[in-house]
């Protein structure tokens, strides 16, 4: 696999990244704007989410209907979202439609109408999304776990709170957009069949005159304290969330740490699936996932089980996490490498995956790892390097959040 990464940072601080792949018929883009939920005012949690959605209700010389019709006519498969750090917009289409699609999103990012008469419909959607969490106990327990694993504002949910969503006004949204939607720190990643000089010139026309109003520092993430919490919920089931600190994506030990989590959870031969679900039949779902901020990382584990087996499920899951300190086996590493290489091959064939990956790499690293580099890094992983890391930095100091009819205990 041979990739070329092209990069240009404009005078206003916006960075354009490209990974051309002439073997594809598609092209995709990912736009990361530094306007995530960490920038929500303390009394308006959820404002970034509302602002991001309202920006789609008309921008430039198009109203809401015209935006939808234009993107549909271009065949753009699109998405948007809000994370802690970013409001993001993404799309994929036939390669010939990449630049017209970027023109629409330049208006959405820079010149949204933010119509006051559309605030109530957008607020209603946000309130419904927030309420839906109450009907998804697994999601609720993991959101609570994140809030306790990471310090505020990095642990907060982008959904906000009902009180704050109801209080948000059109003026609040306009002020948030004016303050947070800015070129400095914005990243645009494009991938697929593309002409770099043409894309660079076009993006310069669309975004090059975007002015820097003012810099906004990211909130400082303070150290956390491990916690045990229970959310009472009348049910025959119990949801269990467990988290612990690990290294961020930018850390030299990241891939060793990530491999340990891959052995824990990743396929039907993984330790958590085998030991907690298959051998003992303790739960209907169990997994572990790696999450990274720019300066810290965490492993988040989940198990869903019946209330009468919840304590045993928690105990066995924690035992498996602690057992990682003893290291992994060669057969586990071989299975992990095979699975990851399959994933890398599929990424190579997806312009959407690559546009998002190169934008995220730039945010975390200030550079982009090619698929070739990633493949070589995976090949170089050994049991010795992984086990050395796990012995030095084993899973420990757990935060545990449970949701169900009765609290559980954690052995100390």
Would you mind describing this structure in some detail?
The protein has 2 domains: 6-207, Metalloenzyme, LuxS/M16 peptidase-like (Cytochrome Bc1 Complex, Chain A, domain 1), CATH 3.30.830.10; 228-404, Cytochrome Bc1 Complex, Chain A, domain 1, CATH 3.30.830.10. It contains 15 helices and 13 strands. It has helices at residues 47-54, 64-73, 98-110, 119-132, 137-149, 162-167, 170-180, 196-207, 254-264, 271-278, 310-323, 330-348, 351-365, 371-380, 383-392; strands spanning 6-9, 15-20, 26-33, 58-59, 62-63, 77-82, 87-94, 187-192, 228-232, 237-246, 283-292, 297-306, 399-404. The strands form 3 sheets. The protein has a 6-stranded mixed beta sheet, sandwiched between helices. It has a 5-stranded mixed beta sheet with strand order 9-13-10-12-11, sandwiched between helices. The chain has a two-stranded antiparallel sheet with strand order 4-5. Helix 12 runs antiparallel to helix 14 (371-380). The N and C termini lie far apart (48 Å). 42% of the residues are buried.
Summarize the structure in short:
The chain is of the alpha+beta class and 412 residues long.
Q: Radius of gyration over alpha carbons?
A: 22 Å
> Can you tell me the CATH topology of the largest domain?
Cytochrome Bc1 Complex, Chain A, domain 1
Taking all residues together, what is the mean pLDDT? 93
- Widest β-sheet, arrangement of strands: 1-2-8-3-7-6
Name the shape in a single word.
globular
Helix count, per DSSP?
15
Low-confidence stretches: none
Helix content: 40-55%
Query: Structural class of the helix and strand makeup?
Result: alpha+beta
What is the name of the CATH architecture of the largest domain?
2-Layer Sandwich
Overall strand count: 13
H/E element sequence:
EEEHEEHEEHHHHHEHEEHHEEHHHHHE
Major sheet: 6 strands, mixed
CATH class of the largest domain: Alpha Beta
CATH-wise, what's the superfamily of the largest domain? Metalloenzyme, LuxS/M16 peptidase-like
Straight-line N-to-C gap: 48 Å
What share of the residues does DSSP label as strand, in percent? Answer: 15-25%
Number of domains in the coordinates?
Answer: 2
